[in-house]
Amino acid sequence: MESKGVILDADSLGSDIDLSSFQQIMPFQIFGATNSDQVATRIESCSVAFTNKVIINEAHMQKNPQLRYIGILATGTNNVDLVAAKKHGITVTHITRYGTDSVAQHTWGLILSLVTQQYRYQQAVKQGRWSASEFFCLLDYPITELAGNKLVIVGYGELGRRVAKIGEAFGMEVILAQVPGSPQQNEKNRLPLAEAFAQADIVSLHCPLTEQTKHLINEETLSWLSPSAYLINTARGDLIDEMALLQSLMTNRLAGAGLDVLAIEPPPTDHPLVAADLPNLLITPHCAWGSRQARQRLVDQAQKHLLNFLANKSSGVVVC
Question: How confident is residue 128, by pLDDT bands cut at 50, 70 and 90?
Answer without folding.
Answer: very high
